[in-house]
Amino acid sequence: MGIELQNITKTFGEYKAIDNLSLSIPSGDLIALLGPSGCGKTTLLRIIAGLELADSGKIILENKDTTNLPPREKNVGFVFQHYALFRRLTVFENVAFGLKVLPFRQRPARKEIRERVEHLLKLVQMDWALKRYPSQLSGGQRQRVALARALAVNPRVLLLDEPFSALDAKVRQELRRWLRKLHDEIHVTSIFVTHDQEEALELADKIVVINKGRIEQQGTPQEVYDHPVNAFVYNFLGNVNVFHGRIKNGKVSLGNHHLDAPDELKNVEEKTSQTFIRPHEIGISRIRSNANDLEGTIREVRLQGGQIGLNIECEGLDGAIEAEVPRELFVNLQLAKGVLVFVTINRVRVFTGDYEI
Amino acid sequence: MPQPESAKSTPPVVKKRITDPRSVQVFLVGFTYLFFIGFIFLPLGLVFSQAFQKGWSFYLESIREPYAIEAVKLTLLTVAIVVPVNAVFGVAAAWAITKFNFKGKSALKSLLDLPFAVSPVIAGLIFVLLVGSRTTFGSWLGEHGIKIIFSTPGIIIATIFVTFPFIARELIPLMEAQGRDEEEAALTLGAKGWQIFGKITLPNIRWGLIYGMILCGARSIGEFGAVSVVSGHIRGQTNTIPLHVEILYSEYNFTASFAVASLLVFLALLTVVIKGGIEKQFQKKSFHL
């Protein structure tokens, strides 16, 4: 195992940041810790790095128990949200720092340090900036230097704390793909923390969804996205329409409408239910194609890149429904604000019971 | 790219003024100048005109006189000890307050200002009451041949007390703004405490520290109240420059008094010049902040 966490608990005063959390990550994987802000994901990362002390639990990194090692002996690479580059040192000195502070006997020779730093900076495509200071670099460039710096000490594991959240959207996209490629080359067990589900879905081998200091679900992006185990995960992993209602006799109420309940809930006695529908799993047409179609009026049209977002007010439904249609369809159907449409719900997820986010 | 219509013709002139009316500006600038003249230029000029009243040779004699030289020596000795001591204290206090969380932190932070709030005379009295020869601790020290009050150690201690907030005050906001990120990064990279301090923290606060040391030094040179209480005014032994000036003045030796005072003015002007230079550096480097 690359990283093994056993029963980690951490409280700040009354507040339980991490609640008896256990997690195993195979060597060489890239894992996303995904959760809303304040869910404890950053705290968990800092505990692994030793920047925060757990109240109880055990941390094993690459088969070595590091629970009680001081942070400087844990040998983890940590990439901070706001880069944390040493402002008075050049890019070269920043990356060389971890090697230069080694005890004399372990410290590589000057020439070796130089070669290693240059190699790493080439790896992150920053070898042109050796003599620059952090303040002379853009955010994306700084974060790449920070990554090289973290890798310089040959860390057991690499921890990235919301590494892209301070960057603008375009750079974030680029760096994401670049990090994925880099990870495929160097294969160091890595965890990155994010609250951006898109980032997690795109980048990670495995996603760990965290809420209130506990793991809600873990699995591949596909698994987590397609088969969320509960309402929280479903809700957190993308835009969603939520309708509160009741489930009774194998039917789920959706306003005044009734849908067939999913198989596993067919025999449930009467219960409150929540019905989740992803915007892109809604079909739109100008003519009724199905007896179950809802009738509605488009209230709002939003351009979202290749997709068009529609806000549709449906008859017999409390609250509007959000749908996403491809641009082509939007043009072909001549959709616009105020147009009457028929809404087909292709796929729903129903969860019984109440939940709060 | 097509130019918008309005860009071709002259843009409309905005007539509404955003600044205060001209009369207010003139008044404020004039008032500032008047104030400066009345409270800074005039007194400074007076110091020098008094100092040189009996000519250049009397001036030199006054500041070359043995008691004057002793006073200068004692003042410089005090500064040479106080500034490093307070630099160490200031860095330690600022470090503790900004990088750690501990009980009583906010109380400590407000107590830092105490020497600014309390009258220097009272500061001096506190030390007389604490280690004067009439107290048990003071007499115990006396039995062991250690004299604090009415001697150099007392002057140094009183000056340390009066000037200790300067450096910490300068560093705390700076270190607060810089946060702990860099230190934490250094920690995960395997640096030891002293390496983090020497390679990361100290370079980051360098200009703030120098700036604070200058202010602390300037105040140490000029400190009168607290030092006056603990010194005992022994000529040639426990007189600093400000005390010497006062003694000469009370002996109606005005010209000599102003001559020595002019030394203080020179030191103050020097401080201002250095401070200006540092401030410029500070601003130039502040993009690293």
Q: What keywords describe this structure?
A:
heterodimer, A: 357 residues, alpha+beta, Rossmann fold, OB fold (Dihydrolipoamide Acetyltransferase, E2P), 2 domains, 6-stranded mixed β-sheet, 5-stranded antiparallel β-sheet, elongated, B: 289 residues, mainly alpha, MetI-like fold, 15 helices, 77% helix, 0% strand
Explain the layout of strands and helices.
The complex is a heterodimer of chains A (357) and B (289).
Chain A: E1 3-12, E2 15-25, E3 30-34, H1 41-49, E4 56-61, E5 64-65, H2 71-74, E6 76-79, H3 91-100, H4 110-123, H5 139-151, E7 157-161, H6 169-186, E8 189-194, H7 197-203, E9 206-211, E10 214-219, H8 221-226, H9 231-236, E11 241-248, E12 251-254, E13 257-260, E14 271-277, E15 282-285, E16 294-304, E17 307-314, E18 321-326, H10 327-332, E19 340-345, E20 349-352
Parallel strand pairs in A: 3-8, 3-9, 6-7, 7-8
Antiparallel strand pairs in A: 1-2, 1-4, 4-5, 9-10, 11-12, 11-14, 12-13, 14-20, 15-19, 16-17, 16-19, 17-18
Chain B: H1 5-8, H2 22-51, H3 55-64, H4 66-99, H5 105-111, H6 114-117, H7 120-131, H8 136-143, H9 152-163, H10 165-178, H11 181-188, H12 193-222, H13 225-231, H14 241-250, H15 254-285
Overview of this structure, please?
The complex is a heterodimer of chains A (357) and B (289). Helices cover 26% and strands 34% of the residues of chain A. Chain A contains ten helices and 20 strands. With 289 residues, chain B is mainly alpha-helical. Chain B has two domains: 33 residues; 231 residues, Orthogonal Bundle (MetI-like fold), CATH 1.10.3720.10. Chain B contains 15 helices and no strands. In chain B, helix 3 crosses helix 15 and helix 4 packs antiparallel against helix 12. The model of chain B has no long low-confidence stretch (mean pLDDT 86).
